[in-house]
């Protein structure tokens, strides 16, 4: 057992009087009695003060480091709450849809609605529609002979815009090239482009379906003159229908209100469409000028449609080879 340290006795009244170093003059008996009484009173008061100080020290110890840190954290949170209070959206009365006294102008509402996503969609889709129009009036010879290549090229673009590996490299290149030396408006432009690249995905997918419809319609129009077999026409219709289901399943209204329908059809119909595209490409390139079939693999390998189909398959397969299984702990 450790012994408690001895407390130092409080100074006596006489010691307090003589602490100045001056010796007092001799006192009379009456003064001596008075001095002794005062000294006794001083000693009692000093003892009470010492006991009170000791008990108060035991009752209220000095705050620990943890308590100080907790108090600082609470004060910091309180300051953060005060700073964020100005950003809180007030609760509106029932039936009131906006806190604005004056509604926003039509131009402002249009600018908010017509965001970079819709701008990119408009650009891609309009560009392809111009190409289809020129092909319809016979001013686009390449589309007359390689309409399937244009359709599959758009599908490659659509799939790439949703491929993680492609997006990683695209983000890396744009950040490295435009990060430091470009003006602010250039960086804002590229930031908006990267955040709304889904507009290219949607525009390319819709354009690819439109090109498929164009080549199938042309195949029906010229099937007599070109001796197109019925199997080519049939697979063309099946491919267009499957791609159209994949596209319409991703419509904003369906995604918002029937998300499971979107997930099932956009994924499974999309994978099915890839298989049908392969069949359509192989059957189309195997047709000879006389309407028969040839088994030349070299002719298939030389076709642009073959390589576009291969790129689509690779882009879709990459996530399945890069994903890994990790343990997940669910907490509530």
UniProtKB/TrEMBL annotation:
- Which residues span the membrane? 119-140, 202-220, 232-256, 268-286, 306-323
> What's in the keyword line of the UniProt record?
Membrane, Transmembrane, Transmembrane helix
On whether RNA-binding is a keyword of this UniProt record, the answer is no
- Where is the sequence biased in composition, kind Polar residues? 1-10
Residue ranges, annotated region (Disordered): 1-72
Q: Where is the composition biased (Basic and acidic residues)?
A: 33-47
Q: What residue range is the signal peptide?
A: none
Q: Does the keyword Lyase apply?
A: no
Question: Bias category Low complexity: which stretches?
Answer: 48-64
Superkingdom classification of source: Eukaryota
| Record protein name field | Uncharacterized protein
The species this protein was found in? Hermanssonia centrifuga
């Amino acid at each position: 057992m450790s012994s408690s340290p001895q407390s130092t006795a409080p100074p006596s009244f006489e010691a307090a009087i003589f602490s100045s170093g001056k010796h007092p003059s001799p006192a009379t008996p009456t003064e001596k009695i008075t001095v002794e009484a005062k000294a006794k009173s001083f000693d009692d008061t000093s003892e009470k003060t010492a006991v009170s100080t000791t008990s108060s020290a035991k009752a209220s110890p000095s705050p620990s480091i943890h308590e100080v840190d907790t108090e600082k954290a609470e004060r910091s949170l309180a300051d953060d709450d005060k700073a964020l209070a100005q950003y809180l959206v007030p609760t509106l009365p029932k039936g009131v849809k906006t806190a604005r006294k004056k509604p926003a102008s039509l131009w402002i509402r249009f600018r908010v609605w017509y965001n970079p996503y819709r701008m990119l969609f408009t650009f891609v889709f309009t560009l392809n529609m111009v190409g289809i129009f020129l092909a319809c009036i016979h001013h686009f010879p390449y589309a007359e002979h390689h309409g399937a290549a244009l359709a599959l090229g758009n599908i490659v673009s659509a799939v790439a815009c949703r491929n993680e590996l492609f997006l990683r490299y695209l983000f890396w290149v744009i950040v490295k090239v435009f990060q430091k030396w470009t003006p602010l408006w250039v960086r804002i432009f590229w930031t908006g482009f990267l955040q709304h690249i889904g507009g290219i995905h949607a525009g390319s997918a819709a354009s690819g379906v439109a090109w498929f419809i164009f080549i199938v319609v042309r195949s029906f129009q010229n099937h007599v003159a070109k001796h197109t077999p019925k199997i080519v026409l049939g697979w063309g219709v099946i491919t267009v229908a499957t791609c159209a289901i994949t596209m319409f399943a991703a419509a904003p209204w369906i995604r918002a209100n029937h998300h499971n329908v979107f997930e099932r059809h956009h994924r499974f119909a999309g994978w099915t469409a890839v298989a049908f595209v392969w069949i359509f490409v192989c059957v189309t390139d195997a047709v000879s000028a006389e309407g028969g079939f040839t088994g030349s693999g070299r002719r298939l390998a030389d076709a642009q449609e073959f390589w576009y189909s291969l790129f689509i398959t690779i882009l879709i397969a990459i996530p399945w080879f890069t994903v890994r299984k990790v343990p997940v702990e669910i907490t509530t």
